[in-house]
Design a protein that fits this description.
The protein is mostly beta strands. The chain contains 2 helices and 16 strands. Helices cover 3% and strands 55% of the residues. Strands 1, 2, 3, 4, 5, 6, 7, 8, 9, 10, 11, 12, 13 and 16 form a 14-stranded mixed sheet that branches. Strands 14-15 form a two-stranded antiparallel sheet.
C-alpha cells in the first residue's frame, strides 16, 4: 500500500506484508539416503582412538518434511524536502520458521542419528535512514542501516552444499553469519565535461561474527559470539566516457574502468579460530584492489 497523508503531496507512506514458502531442495528430499557417518576421535599422536566411534545415521524427524516459510513486512516514510532532496526512514522485518536444520542426536535405543527437521527459526530486523540529492543526471545517496540477524546455525545447506566432509556440532540459536549491526553506504553518479562521468561508492560496516573452537572442532563458548571481523571499508570508483560508434549504425556507448577497494584496505574473509593452531587469532584472505574494464551500450 501507499498513500499521501499531507496536502502538499510531498510525503508518502508505503508498506507491505507477505507470507512466503520456500522449496525443499534435493539435498533435503534425499537426506535419509545419505551414507551413515562414523565419527572417530584420535589422540594427539594421530593414531590412538579416544573413546568409542560415534555412528550417525541420517533420518527425517517424523518421517516427512514441510516447506519452510517466512513472514515479511516493511513500512517506510518518504519526505521531499525540496525538489532535489528526499529523505527516507524505513523499517522491515522477516520472521522465518520451519527452516531445515540438521542436528546430531541420540535415539531412544542409544544410537547416534543425524536428524533433519523443520525446527529452525530466524529473524531479521532493519532500520534504514536514507537521504538523496539529485540534480538532473547527477545524484548523491547516503544510507545508514541498523540491523540484527539471529537464527538457528545448523542450516542444512551450510553443511551439505559445498563441504565434502562436514563436521557437524549441536545446533545453537545465535547471531547469523551475515549479521552486521551497522552499515553506511554512500554512492553517487556525476556527469563531467567532455562526455566523462564518474560514480564513487563508499561502504563501511561492522565485521561479521566469529567463533572459537578447539582441536576437535568443538566450539568454545557460544557460537558467533567470540568477537567480530575487523570493520569493513571499501572505496569503489567507476569512470567512463560517452562515445558514438559509427558502424554499423550510430550507437551510443560508454567505455571506462571500474576500481574496487581503491585504497587497498585490508578486508579479511577468513579467521583462524582454532585454539590449537599456531596462527590462532589471525585474519587472512583479504581482497586487494581490483581493476575491471567497462563497456556499455546505451539504447
Amino acid at each position: 500500500f501507499s498513500f499521501v497523508p499531507t496536502a502538499d503531496s510531498r510525503t508518502v507512506v508505503r508498506g507491505g506484508a507477505g507470507l512466503f514458502y520456500d522449496k525443499i531442495t534435493l539435498n533435503a528430499a534425499t537426506f535419509d539416503q545419505f551414507p551413515t557417518q562414523v565419527v572417530t576421535r584420535y589422540g594427539v599422536d594421530g593414531r590412538s582412538v579416544v573413546g568409542r566411534p560415534l555412528v550417525e545415521r541420517p533420518v527425517f524427524e517424523g518421517g516427512r518434511l514441510r516447506n519452510p516459510e517466512s513472514v515479511a513486512w516493511n513500512l517506510e516514510l518518504d519526505r521531499e524536502l525540496t525538489s532535489r532532496v528526499v529523505l527516507r526512514a524505513g523499517y522491515q522485518q522477516r520472521q522465518g520458521s520451519r527452516e531445515l536444520i540438521v542436528d546430531p542426536r541420540t535415539d531412544p535405543a542409544g544410537h547416534g542419528v543425524l536428524l533433519l527437521a523443520n525446527a529452525g527459526h530466524s529473524r531479521y530486523r532493519e532500520l534504514e535512514l536514507t537521504g538523496r540529492y539529485h540534480a538532473g543526471a547527477n545524484q548523491l545517496v547516503v544510507s545508514y542501516v541498523r540491523s540484527a540477524a539471529t537464527g538457528d546455525l545448523n542450516d542444512l545447506n551450510g553443511f551439505f552444499a559445498n563441504v565434502e566432509n562436514p563436521v557437524i556440532r549441536p545446533n545453537e540459536h545465535s547471531r547469523l553469519p551475515s549479521d552486521a549491526p551497522n552499515r553506511v553506504l554512500a554512492w553517487g553518479e556525476f556527469d563531467l565535461p567532455r562526455g566523462f562521468g564518474i560514480a564513487p561508492l563508499v561502504e563501511v560496516r561492522d565485521g561479521f561474527p566469529r567463533s572459537i573452537f578447539d582441536e576437535h572442532h568443538d566450539f568454545v563458548g557460544e557460537r558467533n559470539r567470540a568477537g567480530r571481523f575487523p570493520r569493513f571499508f571499501s572505496l569503489d570508483v567507476q569512470a567512463w566516457k560517452h562515445v558514438t560508434l559509427p558502424w554499423p549504425k550510430k550507437l551510443k556507448a560508454r567505455i571506462g574502468i571500474k576500481v574496487f577497494n581503491i585504497t587497498n584496505h585490508f578486508n579479511p574473509r577468513d579467521f583462524d579460530g582454532n585454539l590449537a593452531s599456531t596462527r590462532f587469532g589471525g585474519f587472512s584472505n583479504g581482497v586487494s584492489s581490483m581493476f575491471r574494464g567497462k563497456f556499455v551500450f546505451d539504447f
